[in-house]
Amino acid sequence: MVLGFDDFLLGEAAFAATLVLLEVPSGWLSDVWKRRHVLLLGTLFEMLGYGLLLVADGLWMAVAAQCVIGVGISLISGTNTALLYDSLLSEGREAEYRRHEGRRMGLGLYSVAGASMTGGLLYAVDQRLPVVMSLVALGAAALSSLMVHEPERHRRAVLRHPLADMLET
Question: pLDDT tens digits for 128-144?
Answer without folding.
Answer: 999 999 999 999 999 99
